[in-house]
Amino acid sequence: MSKDAGPRMAVNLGGITMRNPVNTASGTFGNGEQFEGFYDVGSTLGAITCKGVSAIPWEGNPAPRLAELGGAAILNSVGLQNPGVAGFVGRYGEYLQGLRRKGCAVICQVAGHSLEEYARAMELFEELAPFASGFEINISCPNIAAGGAAMGATPAAAAEVMRTVRPLTTRPIVVKMAPHDVAEIGRALEAEGADALSLINTIPGMSIDVRTRRSRVCRPTAGVSGPAIHAIAVRMVWECARAVKVPICGIGGITCGEDAAEMILAGATAISVGTANLVDPACAARVVEELEQWACDQGVTDINELIGAFEC
Amino acid sequence: MTIQPDSLAGTASATGVHGFEVFSNEAVADGVWRMRCHTPVASLIAPGQFVNVAVPGDSAHILRIPLSFSVAQATSQTLELVYAVVGEGTRRLSCMRVGDTSTMVGPCGNGWALPTHEGRALLVAGGVGLPPIVACARMLAEASVGFDVIVGAQTSAKHVEYLLDELRRLAPDEGCDCARKVLVCTDDGTLGTRGFTTDVMADLIADRPYAQAYTCGPTPMMAGVARLCAKRDIACQASLERMMGCGFGACSCCNVALVAGGYALCCKDGPVFDAREVVW
Ligand SMILES: Cc1cc2nc3c(=O)[nH]c(=O)nc-3n(C[C@H](O)[C@H](O)[C@H](O)COP(=O)(O)OP(=O)(O)OC[C@H]3O[C@@H](n4cnc5c(N)ncnc54)[C@H](O)[C@@H]3O)c2cc1C
Ligand SMILES: Cc1cc2nc3c(=O)[nH]c(=O)nc-3n(C[C@H](O)[C@H](O)[C@H](O)COP(=O)(O)O)c2cc1C
Ligand code: FES
């Protein structure tokens, strides 16, 4: 390996080709544009995953949607506020097309309350979003009353969502999984034609203000994210990777190249930076550099050699 | 004190991550601190916009602290933040020493707009809603808009004296009918009038006509100001607070319910809103 060539960093996430393994977690990266003041998103990242979008606009939950937990974690209950597929494409389509031109993959996230709604959103995306490199089906949002996490709670329920959306597109489908039974549910999704899996979504949690006896966010339970969940996420990626053959995007508490490298060793092909984008807006760009440095230090010519290279 | 003319014109500068270095950080009232720092944000930020500050040295609390500013001096690149110590983040902020460095995301959001109609402006501040009101007063003074100010606090010890002096300097008593007034009140009567800012405001607007109000402070106070303005058909801009995840429109955590239905984002669409457009 010549000194300045560096290791090859490109990966393939179930048909979504990425120039490097770094992706962004849905809901923590706006739709990319918000980060252009911090770095050139399209020339830097392997992919971005957009905010969850439903067939028609969703208002999302009332305030307050966020609490700081004090243990390197936050609690959110945004509830998938989004302008609907048409609104999303109208507002961001051109920008996202531009990202594709710069070589950054664009993953559009599909949300729904029911099988019909997932199907409708998928159809609209298929028709209106030629810029999407692939889709991520969110069956794991803990912050909506119907659908969301309930749709992915069991292997049978998850498989049904996959059966519903699979015939509607030929583009790659990633499924965003909840933090439980990942091996079993992962196998069910793979059997129904999922091209890749991404995990984990936030971990359901609670935070009670003991003076007022009320939840510190708008609903009793909400989603925990941030550095505190990283070790749990790495374990789940490892469990899932051993159960399936499709590639995995590892998500949860990633703040640096070392966190990302752990995910890759545990079996992830790609990784997503989530909460860290909010507090350190240039984090994902830094992870790209640090990950490449790590691959270099490991003496490999291709980052793919390190996927699942955890020695136990 | 100068603010860059182009920041006054409200041209939005792109939000970025900027370094800052503390050159003073001290208590200026009971539980209220003032930090002065050097940072390039000072030449980019407009009155009513805010910065999202990373406090170093605690990996358990990950969110930044959103703070408005009272003074931004472009020539010397200095920014002045006045903040109440209310929890762990602001407590740690108060521990930063001269020479300490960190980063801030900014400038964030949309600041105050100059009045669109001829006429006097009324500024109403409560508690640590005062810093952006001081920045607003300076903006109005530079634009030669006449204004009066009402500043409320729980008790005299919580009033930030030097900012009251700054307001009096910006609003000199010219001894004529339309002399600018700086009216001070406290909940317990230990300084100025006893009572709430809205009581003082009700008396004042019965006396003088206003075209525009600007308010920042506790939500119940701003709601009261908005109600009084609506009754008298006075336009009102209010600077709202929400828990913030990012401060630049990426997470949808800072939603503000709108009268027209749906939500706006406090960090991106605000923090300054037309008081008639938000659900109080
Ligand atoms: C746009 C904007 C401008 C602000 N400007 C100023 C300012 O100039 N001076 C000032 O003293 N404060 C200002 N605040 C409020 C300040 O951000 C909070 O007081 C601070 O984040 C509390 O952090 P903490 O860790 O010390 O407290 P925590 O321990 O997190 O909380 C202590 C208390 O403060 C409340 N709180 C926490 N975060 C916020 C928040 N973002 N907004 C409102 N209340 C909050 C909590 O609900 C709790 O009751 C502003 C807030 C916003 C959104
Ligand atoms: C504010 C916020 C909004 C989120 N919105 C979504 C969403 O729309 N769809 C989704 O699948 N996950 C959403 N998530 C979950 C993240 O994508 C990610 O799975 C989770 O936060 C764990 O990663 P982290 O610890 O790096 O943040 C959201 C998380 C946060 C903090
Ligand atoms: S704080 Fe993230 S969108 Fe406003």
Which secondary structure elements does this structure contain, and how are they paired or packed?
The complex is a heterodimer of chains A (312) and B (280).
Chain A: E1 11-13, E2 16-18, E3 22-24, H1 41-44, E4 47-53, E5 66-68, E6 74-76, H2 84-101, E7 105-110, H3 115-128, E8 134-138, H4 155-165, E9 173-176, H5 182-191, E10 196-199, E11 203-205, E12 208-209, E13 214-215, E14 222-225, H6 230-243, E15 248-251, H7 257-266, E16 270-273, H8 276-279, H9 283-297
Parallel strand pairs in A: 3-16, 4-7, 7-8, 8-9, 9-10, 10-15, 15-16
Antiparallel strand pairs in A: 1-2, 5-6, 6-14, 11-14, 12-13
Helix pairs in contact in A: 2-3, 3-4, 4-5, 5-6, 6-7, 7-9
Chain B: H1 5-8, E1 16-29, E2 32-38, E3 50-53, E4 65-68, E5 71-73, E6 78-84, H2 88-94, E7 101-108, E8 121-126, H3 130-142, E9 147-153, H4 161-170, E10 182-186, E11 193-194, H5 197-207, E12 212-216, H6 219-232, E13 235-239, E14 255-257, E15 263-265, E16 272-274
Parallel strand pairs in B: 8-9, 8-12, 9-10, 10-11, 12-13
Antiparallel strand pairs in B: 1-2, 1-7, 2-6, 3-4, 3-7, 5-6, 13-16, 14-15
Helix pairs in contact in B: 3-4, 5-6
Bound molecules: flavin-adenine dinucleotide, flavin mononucleotide and FE2/S2 (inorganic) cluster.
Residues 244-247, 249-254, 265-268 of chain B line the site of FE2/S2 (inorganic) cluster (FES).
In summary, what is this structure?
The complex is a heterodimer of chains A (312) and B (280). Chain A has 312 residues and is α/β, with parallel strands linked by helices.
Overview of the structural elements:
- The complex is a heterodimer of chains A (312) and B (280).
- Chain A contains 9 helices and 16 strands.
- Chain A is globular and about 55 Å long.
- Chain A has one domain (11-61, 81-203, 226-306): Alpha-Beta Barrel (TIM Barrel), CATH 3.20.20.70.
- Chain A is of the alpha/beta class and 312 residues long.
- In chain A, helix 6 packs parallel to helix 7 (257-266).
- Chain B has 280 residues and is an alpha/beta fold.
- Chain B folds into 2 domains: 5-108, Beta Barrel (Elongation Factor Tu (Ef-tu), domain 3), CATH 2.40.30; 121-238, Rossmann fold (3-Layer(aba) Sandwich), CATH 3.40.50.80.
- Helices cover 21% and strands 31% of the residues of chain B.
- Chain B is built from 6 helices and 16 strands.
- At the A-B interface, strand 5 and helix 8 of A face strand 14 of B.
- The structure holds flavin-adenine dinucleotide, flavin mononucleotide and FE2/S2 (inorganic) cluster (FES).
- Residues 50, 65-68, 82-84, 86-90, 128, 131, 241-244, 271 of chain B line the site of flavin-adenine dinucleotide.
